[in-house]
C-alpha cells in the first residue's frame, strides 16, 4: 500500500535558514566636523581624504522561518524586492555620508558610515520587513562585519596572509613513527603553505565614529605580532614556541589566539575568533570567547565571495 504524503513529508512547518546575497557600490569619507583636518587625518588616515573613496559592498542576509506549503521560508522574489527597496536602491552608486539621516554628521546623533555601522543600520531598516537572524557586510574581500541584532555589539573580521614552512613531527618519536601519524608532512626538510588568517574581533560600535575600534591599530597589532614574525619563516625553528610544539594548523591557530588576546583588549575589543586556512582543503578555527557565531549557518560562508 502506498503511503499518503502528509504535510510534514514535504517539510511544511519545519524551520530552515535561508540566505540571500545583494551587492551595491558606494563611496564614503571618514571626517568628523568637530575635528580639524589634521586631527581627521591622524585619526582616519587616507579614509579622511576629500572627496572620499568607494567600495563594492557585498551583503549577505540570513533569515529564519518555517516552510510554507510551497516548500519555502519566504518567496525569494519578495525578499529581493525588500532588499532593493530598503537598501540597495537607496545606497547603490551613492555617497553614503549623504544618504541616510543616520550618517548626517551635522547632527550629534549622526555617525560615520563604517562597515560595522552600516551593517547595524541596514539591520534596523530591513528587520521590520524580513525575519533576519544575521547580516554580513563585506567592504572588500579582506574586511567584513557581522551583526546579529544585539544593540551596538558588532563583529569585524580582517583577512590577511603569511607564507611559512613547517614540519609535523614529535621529537621523541622515530621518523617512521612520525610518518605513520603525519604522513608526508613529517618528511625531514619540511614543506610550505600560504596561510590565510581571519581575525574576528567583537566590540561596541562607537555612536560617533561608527567604529568598534581603530582599524589602523587593529591592523598594526596583527602585523606586528603575527605577520611580521611568522612570514617567510620555518616555523619549527624560527618561532620559539614551535620548537616544543608541533605546528599543526590547530596549534598555530591557538598560538595566534594566545598572542592576540591581551593586545586586542588594549584597543577596546575582544578577540572572538581566529580562523587559519592552511590550504583550500583544510582550516582550523578557534573561538576565543562565547561562540556566538555558531548561530551563523555555513551557507553564509558558502555563498560569500572570498
Ligand atoms: Zn572605505
Ligand atoms: Zn603542512
What would you say about this model in short?
With 306 residues, the chain is an alpha+beta fold.
Number of helices: 8
Range of helix content: 25-40%
In the CATH hierarchy, what is the class of the largest domain? Answer: Alpha Beta
SSE sequence, one letter per element: EHEHEHEEEHEHEHHEEH
- SS class: alpha+beta
Bound molecules: zinc ion
- CATH-derived architecture of the largest domain: 2-Layer Sandwich
- The rounded distance between the terminal residues' Cα atoms is 51 Å
At the fourth CATH level, what is the homologous superfamily of the largest domain? 6-pyruvoyl tetrahydropterin synthase/QueD
Task: Spell out the key features of this protein.
Tetrahydropterin Synthase, Chain A, alpha+beta, globular, 28% helix, 10-stranded mixed beta sheet, 2 domains, 306 residues, binds zinc ion, 8 helices, disordered C terminus
3D architecture notes:
With 306 residues, this protein is of the alpha+beta class. The chain has 2 domains: 11-149, 6-pyruvoyl tetrahydropterin synthase/QueD (Tetrahydropterin Synthase, Chain A, 2-Layer Sandwich), CATH 3.30.479; 150-297, 6-pyruvoyl tetrahydropterin synthase/QueD (Tetrahydropterin Synthase, Chain A, 2-Layer Sandwich). The chain has 8 helices and 10 strands. Strands 1, 2, 3, 4, 5, 6, 7, 8, 9 and 10 form a 10-stranded mixed sheet that branches. Helix 5 (215-230) packs antiparallel against helix 7 (249-265). Bound molecules: zinc ion (ZN) (2 copies).
Amino acid at each position: 500500500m502506498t503511503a499518503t504524503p502528509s504535510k510534514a513529508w514535504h517539510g511544511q512547518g519545519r524551520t530552515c535558514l535561508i540566505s540571500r546575497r545583494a551587492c551595491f557600490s558606494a563611496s564614503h569619507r571618514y571626517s568628523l566636523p568637530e575635528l580639524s583636518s589634521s586631527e581627521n587625518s591622524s585619526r582616519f588616515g587616507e579614509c579622511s581624504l576629500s572627496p572620499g573613496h568607494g567600495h563594492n559592498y557585498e551583503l549577505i542576509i540570513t533569515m529564519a522561518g518555517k516552510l510554507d506549503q510551497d516548500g519555502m521560508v519566504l518567496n525569494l522574489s519578495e525578499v529581493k524586492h525588500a532588499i532593493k527597496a530598503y537598501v540597495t536602491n537607496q545606497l547603490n552608486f551613492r555617497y553614503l555620508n549623504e544618504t541616510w539621516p543616520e550618517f548626517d554628521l551635522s547632527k550629534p546623533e549622526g555617525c560615520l558610515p563604517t562597515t560595522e555601522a552600516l551593517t547595524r543600520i541596514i539591520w534596523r531598516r530591513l528587520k521590520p520587513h524580513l525575519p533576519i537572524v544575521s547580516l554580513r557586510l563585506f567592504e572588500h574581500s579582506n574586511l567584513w562585519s557581522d551583526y546579529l541584532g544585539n544593540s551596538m555589539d558588532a563583529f569585524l573580521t580582517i583577512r590577511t596572509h603569511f607564507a611559512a614552512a613547517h614540519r609535523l613531527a614529535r621529537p621523541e618519536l622515530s621518523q617512521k613513527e612520525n610518518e605513520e601519524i603525519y604522513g608526508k608532512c613529517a618528511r625531514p626538510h619540511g614543506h610550505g603553505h600560504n596561510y590565510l588568517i581571519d581575525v574576528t574581533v567583537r566590540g561596541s560600535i562607537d555612536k560617533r565614529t561608527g567604529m568598534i575600534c581603530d582599524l589602523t591599530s587593529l591592523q598594526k597589532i596583527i602585523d606586528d605580532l603575527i605577520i611580521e614574525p611568522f612570514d617567510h619563516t620555518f616555523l619549527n625553528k624560527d618561532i620559539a614556541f614551535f620548537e616544543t610544539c608541533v605546528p599543526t594548523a590547530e596549534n598555530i591557530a591557538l598560538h595566534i589566539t594566545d598572542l592576540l588576546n591581551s593586545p586586542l583588549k588594549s584597543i577596546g575589543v575582544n578577540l572572538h575568533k581566529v580562523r587559519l586556512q592552511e590550504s583550500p582543503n583544510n582550516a582550523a578555527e578557534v573561538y576565543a570567547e562565547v561562540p556566538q557565531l555558531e548561530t551563523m549557518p555555513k551557507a553564509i560562508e558558502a555563498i560569500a565571495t572570498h
